[in-house]
Protein 1
Amino acid sequence: MEKLTKDDVHPKILEALLADTNISVEDALENEMILNMGPQHPATHGVLRLLLRLDGETLMGCVPELGYLHRGYEKLAENMSYYEFIPHTDRLDYLSPMSNNVAWALAVEKLAGIEAPPRAQYIRMIISELARIASHLVAIGSLAMDVGALTVFLWTLREREKILDVWDILCGARFTNSYTRIGGVANDAQPEALAKVKWFIDQYLPNLDECERLINTNRIFVERLDGIGVISADEAIDIGLTGPSLRGSGVEFDLRRAQPYLFYNEMDFKVVTYPDGDSLARYFVRADETRESIKIIRQALEKMPQGDTLLNQPKKVLPKKAEIYSKMEELIHDFMIVNFGINPEPGEIYHAVESSKGELGFYLVSKGDGKPWKCKIRSPSFVNLQAVPQLVKGHMISDVVAIVGSLDPVMGEADK
Amino acid sequence: MPLSKELIEQKLNEKFSGESFVFTEHRNELTVSLDKKNIAALCKYLKEEDQLAFKLCEDITAIDWAKRKNRFTVVYHIFSIKQNFRLTLKADVDESDCNIDSVSSVWKTANWHERETFDMYGIHFNNHPDLRRMYMPEEFEYHPLRKDFPLMGIPGSLSLPKNKN
Amino acid sequence: MGLEARLNGDSFFTTTVDALTEWARKNSVWPMPMGISCCAIEMMASGDPKYDIARFGSEVMRFTPRQCDLMIVAGTVTYKMSHVVRKIYDQMPDPKWVIAMGACTSSGGMYRSYPVVQGIDQFLPVDIYVAGCPPRPDNLLNALMQIQDKIGRTKARDFQDKPLPELTVIQNN
Ligand code: SF4
């Protein structure tokens, strides 16, 4: 690792790092060491930068530095219509683009006061859960890789590829999908896509078990996570953790259960919690959550009704492409929406969904015109990362990767 | 007893008699507008009162109204896991007196949210333990989410590395 | 089997230094995965069993720039990050190549906004631009093959006259 000069660390960051001591900077560099980790580091999951204060191998303090991937989403959102922002939501949490699309569509629908038809909602639910599995698979794999078990990473990626194949069939894109629309989804799920989903859920569980057999009994893996980065339930709520990281501390809080959206209230699933609050518990929550997701998908496939997948509401919802090309009225509506937007009535809403990382919320303020006046993204990774300094304190330097990996941050979302 | 608009209204008026709160509802979401000098005390009360227990602070942000008299509004989204209830708090901040009390002593998580709001809008949070920029480099002089900041930024305000060879 | 079978008898063959080095060089390109955002996931996917970048001799992703000769910049480069990218590029030994993966790195892509550098060629020499948002792994492999082509056309003397970069000594005070 590079040795740091004083110019590399901005004085204000240094100040924050040394805040709880009364030794001067000169002293600090003599007795203790300041180590720079990231923003280009394989275990920081992107471009997170951590400045660590070390006494020997023990961590005395840590200051995360964000913003290396700040792309100005909120400013961009203010300058484009609600429809145009859909592709941007893909790239927020790029490990589960589909569920971000759904979250955005739901938020805008709430703002505009419309609701998608049931079949579309079921499709959305299926894809959100598949996205959750895909994201958790990467989280599990990369956590295992961070602590030294490389094989699992390749195995989980193999499973994830299958989900990407589903999306390829479903909407033609394998990664950044932009599949949902305001008021529905882009196209109906074809039978082949649903068959592929069915095939996937049937073969997934044995494969997950196989991965688990590889690491759950692996002494190195377990001991590097067990008891590392413990956070109690109260502390976790106070620091704002949500999602699997919160449930790993034994808090049974899941927005799918607490404030059901889509058709989650009709689904039978368990909110997975583990009481320990350490990195291992967070890993277990993720693995078990994918099992629950499979359950949900199976029920949704059974219950899914036939019918339309796009709302017929010409002032708010873009008409279908084929109709735009063949009918005059649809063409006019298309023109109006594309040029002037959907103009939701003035007001403001906050809508949150349970994404794979935690609570993903959109706060939208409309002034009655085509563009949002204000769009705030409440991203779970951003908030979860805030817990890092308090989690790593007192641990060894090698535990940092395990802790960051167990929180599963995605920097695209954390930096916005 | 499940939380409702009436109950919160009654509780707040009881506790903070003499202060005016404006309650609004849009799409079933309850919003309370209040004076900015009350914010810290109110948040503390909302969190610690047993029946309310707004223990989870979800988000803090601000809105720039551009031409309005009170230019900014700071917005808090808080959630009560116990009661399964979400509440939005709003406090107006004027540009000439651009500060508001920090609530990071109430909810630890407010720390970064407030730093972000400071970075993006330049609103100063009093008594914040560590008010630095969240995303932009420290040398950056502007506050990007203000409405008078252009989308493409101000040329020359951010530097590129110099070409060595 | 292989080479030995063809070398019947004398066990030696003649070639030029150029041919040998370029053959070796192009079949063992070690990438420096400069994974910044979404494209990095597709870059990872190109290493997975389905796409298998190992077929091209490039599976050895090294996370230290000192051991790499190809930098794959995958993801949106912001102004804040650009200094880091450049610093890492400067640490790579010559000869080195750069792939700009994705629309963002090539041109800023969908982010016409204040923090994003509108194309990394403003501060880095780029050899191959890969289109797509994100490019499919196949597309990245295609870019890799083009880089191999390009390496195949180099001569040893192309790199002779380049002065070695000055290593800056960092003093601890
Ligand atoms: S090109 Fe697209 S996928 Fe790649 S980093 Fe940019 S936004 Fe993400």
Protein 2
Amino acid sequence: MLRENYHAVIIGAGIAGIRSALDLAETGSDVLLIDRAAHPGGLLSRLDAQFPTDGCGMCKMLPLLERDSAEATCLRKGFFHERIDFLPATELSHLEGGPGRFAVRLKQTLQGVDPQLCIGCGACETVCPVDMPDDFNSGLSRSKAIHRVVPHAVVGAYVIDAAACTRCGACVPICPTGAIDLAFDRRKEFSILVVDDELSVRDSLKEWLLNEGFMNVQTAESGAEALTLLEQSDVKLLLIDVKMPGMDGVDLLKQAKADHPDRVAVMMTAYATVDTAVEAMKSGALDYLIKPFDPQAMLAMVNRVFQATVSVQERQVTAGAVILAGGMTLFDPGEGVNPYGYGTHPHVITSLAFERVLSGCGPSQGRLVRPADGKPLQRIAWLQCVGSRDCQISADFCSRICCMISLKEAVLAKNKSNDAVETTIFYTDMRTFGKSFEPYRRQAEEERGVNLVRARVHSVTASPESGDPLLRYAGLDGRMHEAEVDLVVLAAGFRPSPETEALAELTQAERNAWGFFQPQPFAAACSSAEGIYLAGACTEPVEINAALIQASAAALEAGRTLRRSGSQLALAEGPAAKGVAPDAPPRILAAICTCHGCLSETRNTEKLISGLTRDPAVVQVLFVDQLCGADGWGPLEAAIKDVAPNRLLVAACHPLRHSTHRRALSRRTGLPENLMTIVDMKIEPTEPQADTTARSLRTALGEHVLSASLQMGVAFLKHTDPTAPEREQVQRKALVIGGGTAGMHAALAIADMGYGVDLVEKENRLGGNLAWLHHTLEGHAVKPLLDQLDDRVIQHPKITLHLEHEVVNAVGRVGDFRTTVQNAQGRTEILRHGVTILATGGLEAETTAYGYGTHRAIVTQQALERQIGSGEADAAAWDVVAMIQCVGSREPSRDYCSRVCCPTAIKHALYLKEKNPRVQIYILYRDVMMTGFSESYYTEARRAGVVFIPYRPQQLPGVETSPDGIVTLSVRDPIAEVDLKIEANLLVLATGVVPRLPAKLAAFYGATLDSGGFFQEADSKWRPVDGLREGVFACGLALAPQTITEAAAAGQAAAQRALRILCHESLSAGHPTAAVRHSLCVLCQRCIDACPYGARSVDLEQRRLVVDPAMCQGCGACAAVCLNGAAILNHHGAGQMLAMIDAAVE
Amino acid sequence: MQSFEPLIIAFVCNWCTYTAADLAGTSRLTYPSNVRLIRVMCTGMVDPQYIIKAFLEGADAVLVSGCHPGDCHYINGNFKARRRIRLLKEILPQFGFEADRLQLTWIGASDGIQFTQTMRELTERTRELGPVASRSQMVF
Ligand code: FES
């Protein structure tokens, strides 16, 4: 059931939309999440694995606190949260009002199959005659017109492709639950009027339409006659001839539309009068058909109109804020010049299609074979920058993620083939611009043998002998090369998703030159429209972690708006479930689905009953028709009220589908959810054994399997501990360490939501690196930002500022930390807080390379920026300026890209060129990391005459100085193969960023550092600002190299994550949770080492082991290592497991 | 003569392999009815005593299956399982069970087909191994 009022509506249910939705829901908001696709998950629903783990990990986005409010299951299967409603195949159709009071109109396209009724049995698929390319697998496999929307989806499993469906009707009677509606009745009634002066046209049209099932077709031979008919009946669709004697088609159209603007009209025209027909579209005609027309085309159009009228459902809700999270879409390489033969060469596919090739549920079931002919793959080539970084097709931007996608795909292909497959990536710059990217590239290249070739391939043709793709490319040496491979994968770039334009119009949010939404300066999540926020790739193609950080920042901004507009976010503490006394003997009600009567045909129900009731704990066995649909759960409610069980066992198909029903039942009956279990009737093995397929044997076996499942369910329930989990109080205050960009943003965000913040800063001023930064690449001045933040922080009543203070000690855990801070005079103070945000920042790395420190003319980029800021930089005095990138970066000793250095170098180059157009600038680089839209500044710099010279780390540039102030660089030009000498007045070194996060400080809060000394996230992709210990977050340069805007977003994301905790008075554990039997515990502390979340510790006062209920995630690692049975996992304990094993072998 | 039908207990983790089993089910793939699935939160919670108990109680083979390395929902439970199973395989023969009767696999959420194949292969292999020879001499 949908609500009418939401705190927020989120448009786009990809990972960013899901992140924003969960963040808001976890802080008490009701959220409506919509997607134009029929399933959630966006692009990521098609990807099985991400780097650097080469696994998935999406489930790590699920709530860690109040875990029970969401379903604990694979997120790619669909997701469920108490406060989130999801509407598939839905688009925004109208938006009115403003922050705090948006009226939102939505249009949902029904998919022909009722998701409430569909049980996913797949019977329809077996009878559907339509064979079409499978969209989900990028067309590499076939599907039916009625098909599973995503192979692994649980909810709303089947949909009909209305355009492909022939309406043969075969699926309707075979559906066991009557879930399919082809709208035959409404088709019969759908009223169509054909107006044409030629009888033959009228007759043939009428006949074609009748054959298609449209029974309500009228004809008229003139405009006048048509108008009379229009008065008498409610015509939905008009087919109008343009040229008729008397009143012509356009006049008729105008009159017909005048009183019924929603009436649809299609013009029919001869070739000579096409212009008139086009003109008619301005008067409201939908489209036109040119005579003589193909009946199929005409019918397709009529069907489209019909579908649009019958299958669209309008809804209206209110919302306090709107988040746009529509993501991006893959560039179609078949567009335009198409030099790589995409769409014509069978062995050229996109990177997204290759993800499907790699997938276990893809076209080849995960076997590494060529999609077009099944040939085992031995040589694969990836071509980078297809549709990106290409000024000729107005794509002067970098799609940012393709380099890592290709590297990952190459590694996955290697994994699948035991390294047998040969993989080559043809690239321009390998943009490994994030924290863990460079090591991944190094590993791929050096350990896995992925070939990286710096070259732009200019064509792909079919080899005359084998037909395999033949690549032609110019190497760095300028010579032409050829390579033959089995498969070419185009690393296609990204474009705004198709609905972006319409959304921009509806919301008034501005877009940039490439059609993506334009965020506000320094506020990545804010659009130009009030109350409308931006999450994920709708603003720029981004990697997972960046999308999630921005999504959390968008949630924060939405939350702020809600608060400002007076909306009360109230979290109901402790759900209403009554709970069961721990010592009450188990009373189990067993409900078995009869599977539409099939059960009694194949199973001896009497035997099932007697088998179950042998155990006195089972008080009643109930057979229910259709437990698979919502209908079946009604009788269950009555039975629970009647029998008063304290445990419920359900046997039905596909247990994962029933979470909503189970939750609703629990709410209505008060029976806690964890005391209900659903065993599967179908996914249990059903294959006939050995060599006989005799029905009787199958029946006997099926019975045996089912009764074993039921017995296992009984065993599980009987030994479940019904005690309700404990709650722990929260200190509803935050500590933010570090007062730079990220720290200030985090502090303000939390304070604005009404919670106190202690902001500790080592220096005697706020602002961190903002103090010396002059302007950004985009040309925004930094000083006003600093002043504004500074003011707001100092004046905020909820923020207590501790300047010139340092943290000297800290103890505690989520919800209750005690931190000792000390000032310069040595005075200490103890702060109590529930969450900790580490925003300690970073610095420009020090260096002694290239003669730095020996000569005045050798400076760092930071020094140059300071000079620019203070006006000292005298561009006019310089003839030649040289810059060296990656000084000390991207080397084993500092194995990451600092990502800000390339933009900084180009920013300064452009600045100097502007001040002194004659100055020659040379930038010596390894890979130019101008990701996303910053690419256009790279283009601008080259246009301005800045010379870029690549160098290899094996052959570093040489530097010599002379007393006359000239610095001489020697570098080998790899293209001309000559040694160059550059005599520069100024040499600027980009030394990169190092974090300033002392390991000791991190350790106070149980956080660890990664190999670069940055904060180690719980998961670099899916939990990008969280520490593994709950309640500890990081942002800014302490987390990763970031720009100002990124640091601000990370600060807000950290704040949003912290608010999940602060919004609770107390935190409770979910199910299952670990516990300690103190009488058996010998304090050996093995469990403490085993716990990945640091949830276990020794309480020194009480001398016993304790588990923090909020931190424990219930993995059970502790119980498995305990030698005394003292560490236990409630609701999945040893007693239960052993009893289930007993039942299984019976 | 009736051929030997082994009984196999499979401990599958909630996040990946159980999901793969569900995918197999919804894709209407079948696998031998010799296998009994026991859903655990994570392979890292599979206590060696569960495995030994399963063998002693009559299982002819035991499978532990979870998320791929690097993919465990609880960070590293699968690595813990890997270490544990390696050790168990060493001591199982002392109890009279061939090490081959215990298997550890990684089956990801979209690997429905791989799930059924694994179940089929394991059943086949166990069938070839035959009944546990020492079981008849066991005294409990
Ligand atoms: S959760 Fe699957 S192995 Fe740990």
